[in-house]
Fold each of these.
Amino acid sequence: MKIAFDYFNTISQDPQTFAVICHSLITSGVKVYIISAVGEKRLAKSGGLEGYKREIEALGVPHSGLRILQFKDSKEVPALKAKACVELGIKFMVDDRKDTCEELRLKQKSDCCGAEVVVSHGCDDDMGHYGRACDCADRRGVTSHYECRGCGKVCDTK
């Protein structure tokens, strides 16, 4: 079996946990891939493609392969990731983008299933609010810093 995890705003939010998960999967015989789509602006911040690769590798999350997909418009991301999953034979991908997961589940007619990562920040609402990882300049999306979609609260869970 082959499984993929998105890097930015997925693995980057809790690399220690993903390291444990990926290690467990690999030792049980599962091939684990990291698939990340990156735009020109983010590549420039990271020092180009090699810098972006180093950023991912520096987190120490074990994997069987790394696929970096470059895009000019973020609307391209779902189709790019779905195509990569088909090419690699990925059966399950975890990503922070709902549109990517929908592309995998509904539009590709492949065997791949996508699962969206949502994170609860524990606000007072009984139903809980779920946040999307923040990409503010000081955190660069690498710590668990979220802005709640429901109430707008910003919190740092580390």
Amino acid sequence: MIKFFEILNEKLYSNKKNSIATTLIVVVVLFFMFSCSKAKVEQIGAIKNRSAMPQLHATEITTIISDSGVTRYRISASRWDIFDRAEKPYWNFPDGIHFEKFDINLKVDANIHSRYARFDVNDKRWELRGKVRATNLQGELFETEQLFWSQRERRIYSDSVIKITQVSHIITGLGFESDESMTRYTIRKPQGIFPVDKSAGAATPTVAIPASTTVPTIVVVPARQPIPAPVPVANTKK
């Protein structure tokens, strides 16, 4: 009888050891599976982050953009990325852009060139940065480092330094606002008006307005003239 209990006790102890070993193996396997599963989930999540990936990536493009069935713009760019899943969908032109704006008769009434551009789809607003150059119907050249164009409000504006080269004068100032054709514009803080010395090929500063001087806002409404040649699309790199 004593021998029987000794054998039974030995078997129970052996089964207990096997049970503990089995439990340890199961825990290790589950931990390994959980770690692999977590790494896989993180990897898949990164791939499916559509907000950081463009729906469309195009290079060396020229395209026509219409609004309400009417042709409005012609765009040329070295690179065009469309981020449609971003919190605020936008188009990105990291290598610059050149576009021409058409009037209702499909004639070019303004063209703009910059080294970087972004278009916010919901706000219908362009942001242009870096050596921004625009030409209107009168052949006037507008130069600044940053320009905004709100299609919804039908206006173009800037808070940066602006330089406007006319046929007979060069006007400089801080802050600028215009209609979409850039034929009626306002300089918020004029700083200087310089007659153009055509014989010397440069402007002669015979009239200058110090920045600290309070002056009235300049509003210019030029007369209509023939359409100028568009600004070349060359050198769009940032």
Amino acid sequence: MRRLPYTTGLLAMCACLALGSAVARSAPRAVKASYVASMNGMTVGAITEAFEAEGRAYRIVSETKPMGLAAFVQRQPLRYTSRGHITTAGLRPAYFEGRRAPADPPQVSAEFDWVNGHIQLKNHDRVESVPLIAGTQDRLSIMYQYMFVRLDKLRQVDFAMTNGRKLDHYRYRITPDVEIDTPLGRLITLHLVKQRDPGDTHAEVWLSPQHQNLAVKMLIIERDGRRYEQVVQSLELRD
């Protein structure tokens, strides 16, 4: 299957936290965020995201509009959706999908069966059922799961996350109080760095405690040296 574009790689680095050592906290009921994505310093996409919570249910929509040369290759926006429930441990996904346009069938999807302990992954016509690990997130919900989790006392997190094609496990090291410049100003962040095997992709993410641990910058360096970055442009939080 042809890979979905840069946003899959950029955000897949933020997998599921092993929540046993973290403490749940209150989070905003709505978030609107925008990012700019680049490849090797060239702008390739504009990303808009919306998180909404109603009662104990949540829904997240992320849409990427190709820009620059990328718009000549792919004119249709890429749209991801995650929905599920809010628990005392944070987000509990029920369904995740990625598609090109609202009228198109999903290219990838994941259905979470928490009762029976398995997750059904669908990659075009290929369907696979795998065991569902406690705390698993999808590649979109994990970006908002951090809002519910205290990370300030942690120095490492372990990952279980699905992108609809597979279920992967990761480990990230956390460094607190890392200052970076962003369009929102200079921020003190939590810096997460992927602990990787030789030949694996390099991944980093910067979370802003000032903004409920939402991501303000992400970096992926592929094995062939391609460098993908995603940088926040705006964040709106509502209780």
